Amino acid sequence: MTQAVLLHTIQDAEHYLESGLFENAQLFSANIHVVFYLKHQHGRECHDLCSYITPQEVAQVQEVSIRRNGRLLQELDQRLAPEINRQLRLFICYFEPLYSFTGARQLVLYVLLELMLQRMMLSWNLDMLVAYEGRLGFLQSSISEFLRQAFPDLHFIMLRYDFPKGGEKTTIHGGSLEQISDFLMSGYNTFNEFQIRSINQEVHYDRNILVFGPMKQMHCIDQSNEKAIVHVFQPQPKEVKTLFDYRIARENLPKYSDLSTVGNEDKENQQRLAFLYEVISRHFCHHFIQELQVFSLYRKLHEDNMPFSQVLWENPPYTGAGALLVEYFLKATSAEVCGIQSNVTALLGKIPAPYAPVSIYNRCNRFITNDRTLEGTVKLQKAKISHCKLPQITVMDKLRTKNKFLKKRTVVDIALYLTPTINFLKTGRISFEVRCQVELLHLLESLTDKSIHVITHTNATQEICAVVSLLKNVQNIVWIKACSLKDYLTKYEPQVILSGALCPEFELEEWIDDNCQVIVMGDRDSIPIYREEVQWQSMVIYANTVDEVKTLSGI
After folding, report:
1. What average pLDDT is seen over the chain?
2. Its domain of life (predicted)?
3. Are strands 3-7 and 26-29 parallel, antiparallel or unpaired?
């Protein structure tokens, strides 16, 4: 009998090793950090479930899932938004801004994980699956409910060693959509307290700006000579924390079988969409009133006391009250909503960005960038995103200013900058760049005549940077821990900087000097290389393979 144990977190792996359960079972995980931890810290083989999936399959699943999720949300808004809008005196959508990104990613995760497990079970001819309980994606569905839905005939055992703690606030269940305005009125005094705190400033200007943090490009905020008050969005104001949690009764939402979306899918996809709808419905019923409470604070602040003329974000707010506020400012006010290029959107136009229409293009009416090629690239993608209105793209040459080093730095031959890796079970994204990082490390380990630094960012741990588990055993390198690229380059002067495919190139451009060569290694199967587009404006060179890196760098 062949047994398999499915692990999801490093804590699961530690519990498995300590408990001694199912000692002879094969270990599997869709979390690359668990795979590396067991292999390099404990010498245990753990099979990477993500290796059963190709980049081409990911791209195909993403495209289809975004479309199917979009149709589902569109129908939900058509059915439910009119009643919510009637009470709030608005004309906006709710499901689309809240779940167009998270719902699509959740569906991608379900489809790919089901495919991984199918292929795993066929390859190993398993008799039984043992799985640790856990949560999937932003919408936090459980592993057990996913397995029951995807594999109803599978014999599996669930392991639980921890239990969630109860909430601190009193929860009131069974609310209806018709009671939304009553729930919001119960916090009237809270709204007044929030307004008093927000507008209690010594200086007042006619121009007010709402900023969604983090915001590093502060110099982009004031693009005129007018002075302004900048108000930073608080996703959980202290006033709201004192309110009850209200939950809408599930009966207020239609049954999946009553949706017209059902008739457009085959049986297999209907089951997946029905499961997604159940997860979205549960999340909506549990969280919507709390999200509206925060939304209403800012709406009242805008309409009564502090009208915002501009709204800015670097990381597009695609969940919670932030997502609802952006929808409100885009569709119900005259405020300008600007997205500003950041680390999150650095490679927009350089690599496939399937979620861009549902998380970037439709979340602003102006996008500020330093990439002169972006507008042309986005227009070329118009055929695939015909349902999305493209924002105005503004190119600012001074969005990033190059650093001037004032003191002499220590010269280093090669520096490898390791970006964080992705946990598929949390995000629905597969870390194809891990292979690049491992290959680059092996290359550097063989260069005994070079001074080599490997830089890991400030919060790098084995839970968010898979190769940290490998680094402890790599020879011939100096490991610079908990260091931002900015801080590192103020002390050291590398002749060559290497990075994986997800390195934001303009962040490097800000800090490198004319004597430094930057090579970003991509995955030939997943990242198209745009040398012609980027080299005329930067010193960043893209390579597909380790051999190409060696040739381009001369190492």
Report:
1. 80
2. Bacteria
3. parallel
pTM for this prediction: 0.86
Whether 329 and 294 map to the same domain: the answer is yes
Q: At 322, list the tokens.
A: 């932030």
Backbone angles phi, psi at 452, to 5 degrees: -130, 130
Residue at a domain's end among 352, 367, 395: 395
CA gyration radius for the chain?
25
For residue 168 the two structure tokens come to 């601190």
- Asked if 289 and 247 count as a contact pair (C-beta separation under 8 A), the reply is yes
- For the segment 266-283, the average pLDDT, to the nearest whole number, is 90
The span from the CA of 110 to the CA of 88, in Å, is 35
Residue 129's contacts (CB-CB under 8 Å, 6 or more residues apart) are: 3, 4, 6, 117, 121, 147, 154, 155, 156, 157
* 527/521 Cα distance (integer angstroms): 9
Output the CA torsion sign for 34, 37, 40, 46: negative
Report d(CA 256, CA 73) in Å as an integer: 12
The answer to whether residues 378 and 423 belong to one domain is no
φ, ψ at 33 (rounded to 5°): -65, -35
Strand-strand pairing, 135-136 and 141-142: antiparallel
Tokens of 347: 């490679």
